[in-house]
Design brief:
The structure is a homodimer of 351-residue chains.
Chain A (H helix, E strand, L loop, with lengths): L1 E5 L8 H9 L2 E5 L11 H8 L5 E4 L1 H6 L1 H7 L4 E5 L7 H12 L4 E4 L4 H9 L10 E3 L6 H12 L4 E5 L1 E2 L4 E2 L2 H15 L9 E6 L7 E6 H6 L7 E5 L5 H11 L16 H23 L2 H4 L5 H20 L3 H20 L8
Parallel strand pairs in A: 1-4, 1-5, 2-3, 2-4, 6-7
Antiparallel strand pairs in A: 7-12, 8-9, 10-11, 10-12
Amino acid sequence: LLNFVGLGVDRSLSLKSLDVLRQCDEIFFETYTSPPPDNDPLEKEISSATNGKIVRKVGRAFVESGSEILAAASTKKVALLSSGDPMVATTHQELRTRATQRGVATRVIHGSSILCSLPGELGLHSYNFGRSVTLTSDPIQYTAYEAIFKNLLQGLHTTLLLEWDLSKNFFLGPSAAVQKLMDSEADLKYGIIKSETLVLVASRIGRDNSKIAAATAKEIERTDFGEPPHTLVIPGHLHFTEREALAAMTGKDGNWFADNASAVQRLSVLMVEKYAKKTEEALARAKAALKPTEKNGALDYEGVFENVELYTKDGLRFLREGKDELAVLSVGYAEGLLDSLRFLGLLEFEW
Amino acid sequence: LLNFVGLGVDRSLSLKSLDVLRQCDEIFFETYTSPPPDNDPLEKEISSATNGKIVRKVGRAFVESGSEILAAASTKKVALLSSGDPMVATTHQELRTRATQRGVATRVIHGSSILCSLPGELGLHSYNFGRSVTLTSDPIQYTAYEAIFKNLLQGLHTTLLLEWDLSKNFFLGPSAAVQKLMDSEADLKYGIIKSETLVLVASRIGRDNSKIAAATAKEIERTDFGEPPHTLVIPGHLHFTEREALAAMTGKDGNWFADNASAVQRLSVLMVEKYAKKTEEALARAKAALKPTEKNGALDYEGVFENVELYTKDGLRFLREGKDELAVLSVGYAEGLLDSLRFLGLLEFEW
């Protein structure tokens, strides 16, 4: 039997977990997914609660290989302790799959996870969060940046977990994380991470010295948030109860908190507004370029002009109705109608 | 001091929570956000661990009003116990905000939450989940349906929490929930919930009789999953490790699990493919309608035809590159270029 036992964000054993540990023949404790605090009292607590059982600390390679754990669990009762929720880490999930494939029974004692504790710590509603992402030391962080953008388009908040590597004693800090997002902004230019963008920082959640802060991206870059772990949130649209909670917990005025989502425009909106305007202006110039002699000639210029006007207006209307694809199609069509006159060599006018 | 103490999905107190309860003068226990099991041993456990402290069960109205809790917490040490994570419930968050506004200190002891336990229980990666939603007894569930659609467009999984109302002894079951999604499908027709859509059901997570199941929407409708609580997941694109985990845990073959996301097409894709084809066909007819005498005449038909072809191809290329807006704009423009010949009265051809 292989028990995955989560210690939660506050690294405290539950009565149920202690029961499980008492029944176990071997206890492994992996310490690489979350930094253990100095003077960690956990081993002593476990020892005294389990009549002196020994806790064996193991690293990433040991869990990824998993052979020793699986061998032990196939004949004995084994526990693998970890911080947070044990199944959030991919390696633990894979170990569980392999155990099941070999016919080794598994059991999971869930723990509180930073992903679920974070919304409450910040006064945000968990159903207003989109996909969460991890920021790593890698210089290119487009995946995270794109995830924030897609969440903001829906008005949703984004949780940014920051890479932690115990073996290298590396922890990505809030200011380095924000700098990476600024770098992506400089490359991709969606206009979502600016100096004044609201960023929330949750530090050491579950510990006695936990702290939350709200600041602009510019401020974050200049601030030291103390020892890790830290987690960031880029909020989207704030519900008024979220704004109130943030205000109460940070001591700032409720109006101080920017709505990051309001600055994010759908690409369709930018495109339709730009092309509709250009087409309307070009239409006026095309009409002016038309010689009086051609006005009632063989070719129906008026039919073209009318349709350019109608489809441009349709595009703007579709946009207001949220029908982005139809809006873009309409303004593209209007532009094509008008431009055909130039390609044919019928009219000369500038765009 | 107001302590919010979470019991986690397995309703087990941690050593830290017990410490907190021992220090408290009053202990409230709200039972409306999650159904307490029969023969709940929790009160006795608390009583014996805290030297006989009394636990007072309270309902929704009591917590929503909050006046008694806040009054007590302003002079004494108070705990509010709840299942799962205490801050996931909006009423608890609001109570915390009000306490802070009144100068009453608060502390949160997080618990494992169904939202974070669920991915691991199902072998899915938490970063592959989009926004989660709650399905209620209300007949119209468009919000949930739209959330599933938006998540599927990104290949993401959706957690569906099911409404629970203790006061009415009502718990929305998996088959009723799927029926509601089918009703939304019938109304909105995005093509995301079909008979063969893969649905995952997690029942009684955290309890000894927990169970997970994978079935098609059609099967779910006909199956009784036993006593609540249940939570559903509509998976999006499955990573191969997720597929393996699901296979190991449900005993089904890995290939059995459908990719719900593959059936979901972006509207842009449908639109560009349709209009590009139509424009190419119309272009061929336009070329055929052009009289030989006009081919090298005063008007540059060839210039128009070439550009219609180029912009249609551009549209399809932009689509492959994921540049949906540009793709739609290009095919719209190509269509307009060609159609102008008809509006002018130069050529007659069918679309």
